[in-house]
Amino acid sequence: MYSTICQHFPELFEWMRAVDDCRKKTSTYELAAHLTACLAMFLFKSGSRNQYNQCRENLQFKQNYRRLFGFFMPHGDSVQKVMDLLDIFQIEQLKHQMIQVLIQRKTFHNSRYRGHWFRIAVDASGMGSYDHQRDEQCLQRTSKNGKTTYFHSVLEARLITPNGFSISIATEWLENPEDGEYDKQDCERKGFIRLATTLKKVYPRLPILILADGLYPYEGFFAICKANQWHYCVTFKDGNLTSVWEEVMELQALQSKNTRQDLCYLPAGKTVEQVFQWVTAVDYKGHTLNWLACKETIRSTKTEVLEEALKTTRFVHITDLPINASNIADTSRTGRLRWKIENEGFNTLKNGGYGMEHQYARKSYCALKNYFQFMQMAHLIHQLMTLNTRFREDFMKAKNHPTLKSLWVQLVSAMQCFEINEQELQGISGA
């Protein structure tokens, strides 16, 4: 983990020192020490400020922490006070600096779609729900039985790759609407307008392919992408854009040759049959759309498995990129990669030790936002670490290899029980 930080972000702690000190009183710790502590809380997957403080009580852990990061460990309550005061835009800028370094070093260039576009998935997720109004920015929803639920929701743009990366590159918070009641379609679409502005400002020249769910095929979305010179491949559900569906049905007869069938053999005696269809040049209010569908059937080659066990799924997308027989399969797979924002993204953050739905800050909305950004930074470092070829060869392919969950338990145990060699650290950092 230390090697990953040194290799990709050798100036990370200097960037932290450049953050404006928001504290009104003098402190034993410099501001960068508090920022590093917040990052470390998620690097070690503490799951709570209390667990972080438990680690802090261990003398060996504190000594190793000092050797790793160059700072003493402040108390978790002290970190909380700083998170409540920090400029949220400066903290997100730290994340942007990390992403920009990776882009400049062409870390993800081999994973670009058709050798050019970065796949950027967009989706919203809840940050936790409450039976009371936690703060003024809480969203609220009232059920049919009259029960009101309060919650926070965040809209994310994440850079995703076929080999497993799901990296937060821009964040937009969905905040209390003027009419009080939360409506997913209204709030998320409004949030996307703000998110798109941030994306274009921070990454003005980045070639982007937007991947999104069935909420996004609408005129405003197409117009935003066109204005920003982005492309898109989004889920297209029955009932979305009725006029487009009607035109697709009419054009299918004229473009009946636009079909392709693939058969793949999987381990465990299974096959995947994919039948692709596509329709090009569908006009929608001046936007030229291409429609594609994939009917996927998974069946077992074992004779004892009944035909009723067949699993057939249909995936439908629309895109503004040209499609043909040679790229239709890859285009369909790319549209389906949108799921990585939920699986490798939100699901990992909620259930993979980061505690996305945990209340690190019970009252402060500002602190909640800042904790979330440090969570994203730690998640980025972990992905660079665990998706590394050397890591997989050394740790994840050996006989009886540990799970990632158990590996982090061992990592914290090592911090508590063994002394880190400072000369070895200096060799890694090049100091």
Tell me the overall shape: globular
Q: How many strands, which pairing sense, and closed or not: the largest β-sheet?
A: 10 strands, mixed
How far from one another are the termini?
17 Å
Question: For the record, what CATH class of the largest domain applies?
Answer: Alpha Beta
Computed structural class: alpha+beta
Radius of gyration: 24 Å
Strand composition percent:
15-25%
Report the CATH architecture of the largest domain.
Alpha-Beta Complex
Unreliable stretches (pLDDT < 50, length at least 5) are none
By oligomeric state, this entry counts as: single chain
Overall mean confidence score, pLDDT: 91
- The arrangement of helices and strands along the chain is HHHHHHHEEEEHEHEHEEEEHHHHHH
Instruction: Estimate the helix proportion, in percent.
Output: 40-55%
* CATH homology superfamily name of the largest domain: Transposase Inhibitor Protein From Tn5, Chain A, domain 1
Q: Any overview of this molecule?
A:
This protein has 431 residues and is α+β, with helices and mostly antiparallel strands. The protein has two domains: 2-90 and 361-429, no CATH class; 117-350, Transposase Inhibitor Protein From Tn5, Chain A, domain 1 (Alpha-Beta Complex), CATH 3.90.350. 42% of the residues lie in helices and 22% in strands. It has helices at 2-8, 12-17, 31-43, 49-56, 59-69, 76-83, 88-104, 184-202, 219-227, 242-254, 328-336, 342-351, 365-386, 389-396, 404-417, 422-429; strands at 118-130, 139-142, 148-160, 166-174, 208-212, 231-235, 259-266, 270-284, 287-300, 311-319. Strands 1, 2, 3, 4, 5, 6, 7, 8, 9 and 10 form a ten-stranded mixed beta sheet that branches. Strand 2 and strand 3 (148-160) form a beta hairpin. Helix 3 (31-43) crosses helix 6 and helix 3 packs across helix 13 (365-386). The longest helix is centred in the C-terminal third of the chain and has 22 residues, at 365-386. The two termini are 17 Å apart.
